[in-house]
Amino acid sequence: MTQSGYTGFMLSSYRPKVPLYVFTKHPGLINQMSLAWGIRGFLYDDDERALDTIFSDQIEILKTNGYLKRGDIAVSTGSTPVHLKIPTNTIKITKIEQ
Fold first, then answer.
1. Is the dihedral of CA 77, 49, 68, 42 positive or negative?
2. What is the DSSP-derived secondary structure letter of residue 48?
3. Strand ranges, E, within the chain
4. Residue 1 forms part of a structural domain
5. How far is it, in rounded angstroms, from Cα 85 to Cα 96?
6. pLDDT on residue 3
7. Which residues pair with 23 in a beta bridge?
8. In a domain? residue 23
9. Domain holding 34: CATH number?
10. Which residues is 94 bridged to in the sheet?
11. Quick one: 65 exposed, middle or buried, by C-beta within 10 A (0-12, 13-18, 19+)?
């Protein structure tokens, strides 16, 4: 989840060889993010949940849409506590099993 897109833009500046998927509840930000290297934006407005639940939901969205498959590694970034909407302070690495 992003409010400003800062982390996505920063990661994009390194020109990664893997895609970057950014989730936000701001449709206008999705348009801005699409101009950055390798970023694909998704609308996600359920940011009142626990960070682990948000990460799981987003991974399921990516799996359902064919962006992640079994054996892939997903690196999720976010901030906790979620309700404070502070800069990124958490990284979670997940191996896609199903």
1. negative
2. T
3. 20-24, 39-43, 73-78, 90-95
4. no
5. 27
6. 87
7. 42
8. yes
9. 3.40.1380.20
10. 74
11. exposed
Q: At CA 8, angle to CA 5 and CA 10, rounded to 5?
A: 105
Mean pLDDT of 1-16: 92
Structural domain includes residue 13: yes
pLDDT in tens, 43-89: 998 878 899 999 999 999 999 999 999 999 999 999 888 888 889 99
Determine the structural domain holding residue 40 and report its residue range. 6-95
Q: Give the model confidence (pLDDT) of 29-43 as tens digits.
A: 999 999 999 999 999
Q: Which two tokens stand for residue 61?
A: 């969205």
Residues 92-97 have a mean pLDDT of 96
How many domains does the chain divide into?
1
